[in-house]
Amino acid sequence: MKLNEIKDNEGSTHSRKRLGRGIGSGSGKTGGRGVKGQKSRSGVAINGFEGGQMPIYRRLPKRGFNNIFASDFVVVSLGRIQAAIDAGKLDAKATVDAAALKAAGVIRRPKDGVRVLADGELKAKITIVVAGASKPAVEKIEKAGGTVTQLSAPAAAE
């Protein structure tokens, strides 16, 4: 076999359908678009249009709101912190705060603060200073011999 002898398997490729090229082609005249009307024309996008009837998104009431004062915390699990310590990116003896987590590559940006959740296991004894922590996370950190300092009041009960 030579490079100039390589070809696709029989029937693996299909030639494209040339639409609107005469009645003998089988896809002439309307070119597979059915008959006349708005949808047979080009440039039609009528998502959500219900033929003049009041659309569903206008029939239903508006609901909810977006609280512009809500805090947007970065969520970090204990397992992720332990993985960073094991990899040598975080120093367990130093204070672990938002800046240390950012330097270690655990978080990208601190936003309104860091909130620690209890996913995963923590073996290292660490001193952590964060905006918030869940109760199970605080228990796990203290069980490992560490301490937690929360900068703001904890969020609503979980």
Word description of this protein:
- This protein has 158 residues and is of the alpha/beta class.
- The chain has helices at 56-59, 78-86, 98-104, 135-143; strands spanning 74-77, 95-96, 114-117, 127-130, 132-133, 147-150.
- The protein has a three-stranded parallel beta sheet. The chain has a three-stranded parallel beta sheet with strand order 2-4-6.
- The longest helix has 9 residues, at 78-86.
Protein traits:
18% helix; three-stranded parallel sheet; 6 strands; Ribosomal Protein L15, Chain: K, domain 2; alpha/beta; rRNA-binding; 158 residues; rRNA binding; ribosomal protein; single chain
Model regions low in confidence, pLDDT < 50 over at least 5 residues: none
* Biggest sheet: strand arrangement: 1-3-5
Measured distance between first and last alpha carbons: 68 Å
Strand content: 5-15%
Mean of all residue-level pLDDT scores: 90
CATH architecture of the domain at 74-150: Ribosomal Protein L15, Chain: K, domain 2
Q: Helical stretch count?
A: 4
Tell the overall outline: elongated
In quaternary terms, these chains amount to: single chain
In the CATH scheme, what's the topology name of the domain at 74-150? Ribosomal Protein L15, Chain: K, domain 2
DSSP strand tally:
6
Q: How is the biggest beta sheet arranged?
A: 3 strands, parallel
Helical residue percent? 10-25%
Topology as a string of helices (H) and strands (E) = HEHEHEEEHE
Structural class: alpha/beta
Radius of gyration: 31 Å
